[in-house]
């Protein structure tokens, strides 16, 4: 039932809806999701990783280092070499000392290069060093 003397119709009420607070809320949510997003920095090269049946999903917030088939050590698309990896890791681990270091090792790289990189990572005080493998379908 309508009130007696009311001149406001349903159409007039619908015309007065203000959506500007909703737009503000959408922008605030957008900023929140951008700020809280975790960015994974890829090493910058493709490596042909060895398959392993025990492979697990890697963590999202890690330091990725690639070792190519030609024994080149790469971080962030830049070749840093075996000796340069310690300074890179020291700088990165200063801000997040518990961040794991993941080595993406090409299956044709030499074991000596991998050992040298692991040694340099340990000297940089990395607490967790893991080797990334591809998941075997067997």
Describe this structure in words.
The structure is a single chain. The chain is an alpha/beta fold. It has a domain at 51-135: Nucleotidyltransferase, domain 5 (2-Layer Sandwich). Helices cover 37% and strands 17% of the residues. It has 4 helices and 7 strands. The protein has helices at residues 10-15, 20-36, 81-95, 111-123; strands at residues 51-52, 63-67, 73-75, 78-79, 101-105, 129-132, 134-135. A 5-stranded mixed β-sheet has the order 4-3-2-5-6, with helices on one face. Strands 1-7 form a two-stranded parallel sheet. α4 (111-123) links the parallel β5 (101-105) and β6. α3 packs parallel to α4 (111-123).
* Number of beta strands: 7
Describe the strand arrangement of the main beta sheet, using strand numbers: 4-3-2-5-6
Count of DSSP-assigned helices? 4
| Overall geometry | elongated
Structural class: alpha/beta
Overall pLDDT metric = 81
Quaternary state of the chains: single chain
Give me the CATH architecture of the domain at 51-135, please.
2-Layer Sandwich
Distance between the termini: 72 Å
The biggest beta sheet, please? 5 strands, mixed
What is the CATH class name of the domain at 51-135? Alpha Beta
- The percent of residues in helical segments reads 25-40%
Question: What is the chain-wise order of helices and strands?
Answer: HHEEEEHEHEE
What would you report as the Rg, rounded to the nearest angstrom?
Answer: 27 Å
Provide the CATH topology of the domain at 51-135.
Nucleotidyltransferase, domain 5
């Amino acid at each position: 039932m309508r009130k007696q003397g009311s001149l406001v119709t349903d159409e007039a009420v619908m015309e007065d809806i203000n959506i500007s607070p909703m737009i503000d809320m959408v922008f605030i949510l957008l900023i929140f999701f951008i700020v809280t997003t975790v960015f994974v920095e890829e090493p910058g090269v493709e490596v042909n990783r060895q398959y392993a049946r025990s492979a697990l999903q890697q963590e999202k917030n890690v330091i990725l280092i690639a070792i190519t088939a030609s024994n080149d050590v790469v971080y962030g698309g830049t070749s840093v070499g075996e000796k340069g990896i310690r300074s890179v890791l020291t700088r990165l681990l200063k801000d997040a000392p518990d961040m794991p270091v993941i080595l993406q090792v090409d299956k044709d790289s030499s074991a000596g290069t991998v050992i040298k990189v692991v040694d340099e990572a340990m000297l940089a005080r990395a607490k967790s060093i893991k080797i990334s493998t591809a998941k075997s379908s067997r």
